[in-house]
Amino acid sequence: MSALTDLLAEWMPHQRWFGGKGREWASVAEDGFFLDEASPVLSVHRVRIGYADGAEETYLVPLSWRSEADEEVAHAYVGSVGDNHAYDAMRDRDATVPWLTHLVAASTVGPMHFHPAGVAYIPEGLPGDVISGEQSNTSLIYGETAILKLFRRLEPGLNPDVEVHEALRGTDNPHIAPLLGHVEIDGDPGTEPATVAFLQSFVPNASDGWRLATSSVRDLYAEADLHADEVGGDFAGEAERLGEATAAVHRDLAAVLPTAEVGADWYAELATQLTARLDAAVGIVPELAEHADGLRALYADVAGLTEPTTAQRVHGDLHLGQVLRTTTGWIVLDFEGEPARSLAARRELDTPLRDVAGMLRSFDYAARHLLVEQPGETQLAYRAQEWAERNRAAFCEGYAGASGTDPATSPLLQALEADKAVYECVYEARNRPHWLMIPLTSLARLAAS
Ligand SMILES: Nc1ncnc2c1ncn2[C@@H]1O[C@H](COP(=O)(O)OP(=O)(O)O)[C@@H](O)[C@H]1O
Ligand SMILES: O=P(O)(O)O[C@H]1O[C@H](CO)[C@@H](O[C@H]2O[C@H](CO)[C@@H](O)[C@H](O)[C@H]2O)[C@H](O)[C@H]1O
């Protein structure tokens, strides 16, 4: 192994975006090229990790290089190779400029191709600041004008976030932030290029739905003897508008991307998938086992459905953290789907009820997350239930009003909510074990009904 490969193998497992934490590595290989040779030099590396269980993952790591150690970027220091000092290029402001320069120039650099959308201004020359809530991706904000999301784990094929935003471009949908460009990198011969980055208009002066909803819940808890509709921070009007916005996005997705009329076979396949996800989740979260029979019965009902319906492209991981409230309305972000699913699965046609179920789960989350610290508070638990029901109903009303179909009456909805809660149990067990009780409590209710 080269000194650089050693350095990356040491550094990567400590990064928030690295998804292979705790897995045993069997091999690691790195290949890189220069994206910018000015100062600081910017290089991009593909790091391919083979795990002991035979699986492989490839990560993208941009590094900036200096011949003298620089105190100003000490926070981004990765390590040294010979006389050169390597820094995390996403946290080194000077090294963030070339991404936009190359997009404006529609460059090809080695295996990397820059595709400007050609519709709006790209703030060339500005440095980008990394956003604090980094998760599986790393995003840079350029002067409150544009946001660049770097996809860390490379997979062959167009990322659904780019695909969906590109398709929605012609619709004038007011609930999405326009795509400004994207970046791809060639893969192994015979494979499609992988999407590396996605540049989107930054939505200024906005607050995300999770922050707004949870501050409404906090208001309610402060007045525990009042009902949700009597408290100043009531969220139901916003929830209703969010339902309308979701329906408008679904309508446009169906208009510009493929759809399919589906029936009995599709429901049977769906039930198989729901059951398979439950079985896998029980192996990871043993607490799920006591609800498994009830959930299997719920999924068996899905297998018996025959009513024809339309499958289409959906958001795939819609929740309150993925929507922004601007001064004029709601914007829906991040059409990437659930990060744990394969790219192919995330691009499949699905029922729009998947997103409705995701958002209904999110109202439950917002209502209950404060109870994690106060499990014995029955009065607050009662208020939380009221808040969740009120906002879930308002969301469905808004959706029904805008689409002409009331999601609350669908026989599929409960099973899809349960499936999302099963996914959330795995997500929480891996990332925030102290929040596991939120989806588990909901599953107890869903499995018993
Ligand atoms: N176009 C945008 N305008 C303003 N803020 C944005 C925009 N896109 C993302 N954000 C902010 O960045 C956060 C993370 O973005 P997101 O696309 O959800 O990334 P991730 O896939 O890492 O969850 C969002 O919750 C939002 O606050
Ligand atoms: O935003 P991501 O695409 O990374 O989504 C993942 O992380 C989410 C948490 O940040 C997780 O969402 C769950 O927690 C939210 C509150 O933090 C809640 O609003 C959601 O309803 C709940 O599912 C999401 O499931 C996961 O894919």
Automatic annotation (TrEMBL):
InterPro entries: Kinase-like_dom_sf, Mak_N_cap. Its EC number is 2.7.1.175. SUPFAM superfamilies: Protein kinase-like (PK-like). GO terms for molecular function: ATP binding; kinase activity. Signal peptide: none annotated. One of its GO terms (biological process) is glycogen biosynthetic process. Residues 11-92 form the Maltokinase N-terminal cap domain. It catalyses: D-maltose + ATP = alpha-maltose 1-phosphate + ADP + H(+). Pfam families: Mak_N_cap (PF18085). It is an enzyme of class 2 (transferase). Keywords: ATP-binding, Carbohydrate metabolism, Glycogen biosynthesis, Glycogen metabolism, Kinase, Nucleotide-binding, Transferase. It comes from the Bacteria. Pathway: Glycan biosynthesis; glycogen biosynthesis. Belongs to the aminoglycoside phosphotransferase family. Monomer. This is Maltokinase. It comes from Klenkia taihuensis. The lineage of its organism: Bacteria, Bacillati, Actinomycetota, Actinomycetes, Geodermatophilales.
